[in-house]
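Protocol step 4 of 6.
Sequence for Glutathione import ATP-binding protein GsiA (Pelomonas lactea) entered exactly as in the expression construct, tag removed. Do not edit the line below.
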Amino acid sequence: MTAPMLSVRDLRLAFGEGPEARTVLHGVSLAVARGQAFGLVGESGSGKTTVLRCLAGQYHHWQGEVAIAGEAYRGERSRAHARRAQMVFQDPYGSLHPRHTVRTALAEPLHVHGLDRVDERIDEALHQVGLPLHFRFRYPHQISGGQRQRVAIARALILQPPLLLLDEPTSALDVSVQAEILNLLADLRERQGLTYLLVSHDLGVVAHLCDSLAVMQQGRIVETLSSDALCRGEARHAYTQALVAASHA
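Step 5 output, structure tokens:
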């Protein structure tokens, strides 16, 4: 049996200590096969982005067992981890330095990891996300929101990680641009065999991009099902059914 690309068992996280401690993740467990796109859905505050932040190394004090590409992960932000998993954030403008050109943004991880062929790799990354090569000289304020998100995706892919952690990657974009970015992500996954863990409050986005999903409520996974089952109306948990009903309202 091939190990899953991502395995999470009994992930727990609390903020504060003693009687003041507030638990935000209550034993979250999930497995994402290699090449699969898996969604985490739920209302704001359900804990879905917190899971991503634990996996990306933004929170270190969680408990549980995590393995990425068969390697145990304990919350460190190491070079090895950066080569295994990268995160794409909700707001592309906030995740790109306003005074750095696109070239600088894409070159930084290459320099940190001591990789060669910097300009060639930047050209390849821009081509992968459908941006013309002259965009390397532009600043974030000189390009549209959708183009900024393409740059953010290119930056995440430039180290060639097998796993992308996608935090609401289209929610800050216009509806017409959302579809472009979702189609780009679907194409990249198919061409490069990528694995995605996608966080979204939008069931339509998850159904479009993901094979399976887990529904989170108050820091717990209450249901896991395939996107096909979701679309067929086969959700069993009352909270999932309420999310589906709200998405159709």
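Step 6, annotate. The longest helix spans residues 175-192.
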